């Protein structure tokens, strides 16, 4: 296939160099966006009197036909083409003749590829948003089922204080809600049209960039033509959002992996989302969660690769920027796949409430409540803290727990202890009396559930 830029050159491009230069094997997935952008561009050229109505009719019909043929499998994208933009233009010219050559008037591949990439990533962002909302809904439903499931809360991976499983799950709902908001913010900055920037300096034709932007659903246009063709902030920002999403998914995966182990036994994953061992017949491995955890580093790499590629580039367009697509495509597709598997894995997960409560009964996780008991009776908290620490040390030496330590022993530490202390340090009471906003108490968890439900009800998929 003759290169569109072949006029300047006498010799042919080396075959290895041609392959090295080509991007068709990865940018071909933007064929829909490329054709939609070309349709809007052609309509604008006609409206501005740059091409005739007859030319527009032929170009539009040809582009629509190419789009339909690719979708239906009647037209195979030629992997010998340099890129998807050149393939579509060459195919159009082959079908409608020289009229097809008018399509590229008042634009460059520099602004064309920038347009296609924004359109494509806007579409992919909508898929990520849908995946996040599905996961938040799964978390909401699982939390709603487990408001009475008491478990140990941890700091430093040491048992700390009693919480409900619902509270723990809702912490992740809050993370993913922030991710949706971050994604929406990134799309706002992405959603401006660079088309009309041309190679870097704009055009001498009386184009209407705003018309094209409106036709393609953009909020406006890039205000500087050099920035329009060389900006890839939107790729880096989207990959940053993807990296944070993966970080949250990885943390959640780690907990699910721990919870499903024999050592914890808090949950059991469905057979549909686990695998076995080739040698150990008893194994049930949480491979899907482990893969999500592993793929997090991959998305981080996509972000760092993109930032590194951009860090030394002078204005305006440079061929280095061809490297943006594989990274950002990989990042968004990895997030989409992880979200796709995570929501049903969570929804089908069995919660073992009895094991959670048994674990919560150990580790002295009601020690803070015992100190609060003394504080409410007038003792300074630091003094109460020290006394309870001594009591815990005594229990460890004698094999007791706070709930079974005799009152007479308690009184050896302070006369403020009375029979009511046992009710105060019961796990149910420890949870119920958490009344501060955002806490693990029943009223607070109910409020958090309402927040999540309201958030889901307000969201729409663009």
Mean pLDDT: 94
Radius of gyration: 30 Å
Biggest beta sheet attributes: 2 strands, antiparallel
Question: Within the largest sheet, what's the order of strands?
Answer: 1-2
Structural class: mainly alpha
How many helix segments?
Answer: 19
How much of the residues is beta strand, in percent?
under 5%
Distance between the ends: 39 Å
Shape category: elongated
Count of beta strands: 4
Portion in helices: 55-70%
Order of helices and strands: HHHHHHEEHHHHEHHEHHHHHHH
Stretches where pLDDT is under 50 for at least 5 consecutive residues are none
Question: Could you explain the architecture of this structure?
Answer:
With 462 residues, the chain is mainly alpha-helical. Helix content is 61%, strand content 4%. It has 19 helices and four strands. The chain has helices spanning 15-21, 24-27, 31-47, 53-71, 84-96, 109-144, 165-190, 209-215, 225-230, 233-259, 287-310, 324-347, 353-360, 367-376, 381-398, 407-413, 421-424, 427-432, 442-458, and strands at 150-155, 158-164, 267-268, 350-351. The strands form two sheets. It has a two-stranded antiparallel ribbon. Helix 10 runs antiparallel to helix 11. The longest helix is centred in the N-terminal third of the chain and has 36 residues, at 109-144. It starts with 14 loop residues before the first helix and ends with a helix. The model has no long low-confidence stretch (mean pLDDT 94).
């Amino acid at each position: 296939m003759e290169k569109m830029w072949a006029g300047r050159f006498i010799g042919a491009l080396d075959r290895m160099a041609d392959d090295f230069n080509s991007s068709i094997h990865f940018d071909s997935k933007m064929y829909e966006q490329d054709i939609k952008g070309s349709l809007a561009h052609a309509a604008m050229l006609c409206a501005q009197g740059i091409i005739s109505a007859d030319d527009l009719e032929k170009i539009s019909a040809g582009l629509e036909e190419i789009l339909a043929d690719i979708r239906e499998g009647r037209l195979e994208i030629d992997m010998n083409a340099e890129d998807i933009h050149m393939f579509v233009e060459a195919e159009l010219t082959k079908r409608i003749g020289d009229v097809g050559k008018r399509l590229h008037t008042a634009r460059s591949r520099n602004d064309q590829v920038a347009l296609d990439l924004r359109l494509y990533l806007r579409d992919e962002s909508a898929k990520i948003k849908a995946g996040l909302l599905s996961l938040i809904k799964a978390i909401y439903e699982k939390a709603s089922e487990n408001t009475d499931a008491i478990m140990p809360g941890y700091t430093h991976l040491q048992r700390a204080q009693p919480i409900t499983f619902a509270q723990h799950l809702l912490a992740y709902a809050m993370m993913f809600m922030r991710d949706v908001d971050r994604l929406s913010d990134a799309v706002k900055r992405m959603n401006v049209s660079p088309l009309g920037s041309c190679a870097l300096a704009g055009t001498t034709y009386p184009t209407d960039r705003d018309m094209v932007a409106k036709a393609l659903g953009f909020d406006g246009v890039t205000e500087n033509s050099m920035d329009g063709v060389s900006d890839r902030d939107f790729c880096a920002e989207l990959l940053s959002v993807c990296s944070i999403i993966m970080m949250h998914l990885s943390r959640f995966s780690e907990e699910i992996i721990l919870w499903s182990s024999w050592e914890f036994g808090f949950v059991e994953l469905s057979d549909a989302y686990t695998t076995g061992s080739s040698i150990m017949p008893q194994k049930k491995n949480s491979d899907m969660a482990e893969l999500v955890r592993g793929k997090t580093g991959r998305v981080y790499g996509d972000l760092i690769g993109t930032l590194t590629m951009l860090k030394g580039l002078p204005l305006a367009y440079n061929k280095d920027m061809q490297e943006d697509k594989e990274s950002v495509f990989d990042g968004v597709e990895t997030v989409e796949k992880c979200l796709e598997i995570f929501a049903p894995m969570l929804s089908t997960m069995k919660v073992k409430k009895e094991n959670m409560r048994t674990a919560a009964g150990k580790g002295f996780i009601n020690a803070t409540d015992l100190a609060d008991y003394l504080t409410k009776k007038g003792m300074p908290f630091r003094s109460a803290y020290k006394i309870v620490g001594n009591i815990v040390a005594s229990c460890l030496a004698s094999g007791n727990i706070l709930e079974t330590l005799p009152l007479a022993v308690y009184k050896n530490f302070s006369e403020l202890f009375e029979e009511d202390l046992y009710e105060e340090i019961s796990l149910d009471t420890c949870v119920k009396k958490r009344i501060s906003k955002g806490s693990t108490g029943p009223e607070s968890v109910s409020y958090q559930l309402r927040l999540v439900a309201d958030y889901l009800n307000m969201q729409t998929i663009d």
